[in-house]
Amino acid sequence: MRIYLFVIFTLQCYTSIRAHPKVTIDEFFNATSFQSVSLSPNGRHLLVYTRKPAWDYNSYDNNLWLYETDGPKKELITTQYAVFMEPKWSPSGDWFFYYGNDKVTANSTDDRELYRHAGNKDSKSQQQIHLYSVTSDELLSIDIGKATPSALTWSDTEWKDVIQYRRRKPNYGSVIQRIDIKRKHGKVSVKVHSIKHVDFIVSDILFIPSEHKMVCISIAQSRLYSIDLTNGQIEQWGKGFQGAVRDYTIRSEGGVFILGQLGTNVHVYIQQSVSKYVCLAPGWHGSYRSISSSKSKQYSSVAFSFSSFERPEEAYFVKHIDGLPWAKPLTHENQLLATRSLPRAKLYRWINHDDNRMIEGILHYPPGKFEHKNLPLFVLIHGGPSDASTNMLHADFYTWAPLAATEGWLVLEPNYRGSTGYGDQFLNEISGQLLSRPGRDILAGVDSLISDGIADPTRLNIGGYSFGGFLTNWLITQTTRFNAALSGAGPLEHISMWGTTDFPVYVNTLLRGFPWEVPEIYEKESIMNKLNKAKTPTLISTGANDIRVPADQSYMFERSLTSLGVPAKLLLFPDEGHALSNNPWHGKIKAREELKWLAKYDHVPLVKAEN
């Protein structure tokens, strides 16, 4: 007799699950930033403007890449694209222009001497538009005068009528100009004509040949407008959209694609015409940061850059907007960050009981401690105030919450009153209460985190840059509960700030008048007159050449705190303006020293905390 035994063996696979390492400060600051993407009208080529630290040269590689959308081929056009202005394609797609005031050679990677001049805005230097042919690799450099344009676009005629916006003097509004470029017998001639003045400052423009209209974004309001060049009529786009317009591109089918920030996400929206309502295009949750479309007669291919809390930024391409959720990356610049254990983040809401206003922000948890309790808190305040913290991963000294969380901090990024993406009323509620209203929004958020058991009440710290530094300076005069403060390029005194900044209209508008017109508001919102109440050790940082928030404000702040016996240190970054954009070491050193400052003072409250 034969007995057959059927034996089933359970095979257990013991996979070694190895946790991803945490991101280091070196890895964080070595990330590539995507400044813009620009798709050719036929959808065959994509221009990608990237910015990456060149540590050995104390500067940045500002690379302009030319990609083919249907294959892996890419070509480096220049490493010296040292301005924050998007390149633009000609209507035929055979040429594109990029702006710069340095004479550069296409495909040059060795001329590092130009780094010394990158980012320096010398009003006496000749400004240039560089025209590049994708069919012949020909490069033409066109002198356009000594004034610096704020935006440029093509019109509908090849080699003619390039349109630019140039900022008006002294401080507000823009003027549209037409640049006629003629090429004859190998020589290029240029004529500039003024066309129209507008009462807002423009950050970007596009031309719609079929309608003889231009579409543009206003900087202060984050609104989208079109200007009819035949009659000068101005219309506002974005009907029904309560958020902020971050970018846009023209649809070949008519209308526009809009990158709209609503709350903490920036999504793609579609508007078919100025009279139609805006519709959301299904896609990913996160932040679309730059968008461009082809001009096919049938449909628009779309290219964009995107990131989210746990997804590093890359450039993507999709043949039709309906395929947005399945878009594939064309670039792989930040693959290293994708292999690191990044902090998890979530939305957090609270009530400011002064007026029962709902406020929200972003909570970044240390790796491995998502939704843990009683964590040390660092409040990182965005600048602006017309800005917002959003669902993105952008590695720099300004948006460094993921790095701080990696170092063990629970980081709160509050979108206080005055932030974009929450409607006009929310944006304008700081008028006349420039510091006190958003400051109390932030303090209410800290109270809520303590009440919910999320933040350790004995380990509270605060900081920010630009307007975030402004609020930090005010907050340490209101309470001694913070163990340490970080003030980056933060104003201190309203009147001197108004008198020396390059943008005084913003100050006196938010304070509802000039110092002699509303002295009571300047007094009520004063930091200097209450500075004797400050006890928080404060690290101050600023660019030596800052004209937006002049370095004098930081000098006064450091001297005042030192005179009061409050621990203070001032970091001064040479040859830097407000954006700290010339030398990558400066942003990295700033974050490194700020982390050291937090670690030094977090466990050592110098005075008994007061609410």
TrEMBL record:
Highest taxon above the source species: Eukaryota
Signal peptide location: 1-19
GO biological process terms held by the UniProt record: proteolysis
One Gene Ontology MF term: serine-type endopeptidase activity
Keywords, ordered alphabetically: Hydrolase, Signal
Matches recorded under InterPro entries: 6-blade_b-propeller_TolB-like (IPR011042), AB_hydrolase_fold (IPR029058), Peptidase_S9_cat (IPR001375)
Gene3D superfamilies in alphabetical order: alpha/beta hydrolase, TolB, C-terminal domain
Occurrences of domain Peptidase S9 prolyl oligopeptidase catalytic (ranges): 402-601
Protein name, UniProt field: Peptidase S9 prolyl oligopeptidase catalytic domain-containing protein
Organism for this UniProt entry: Rotaria magnacalcarata
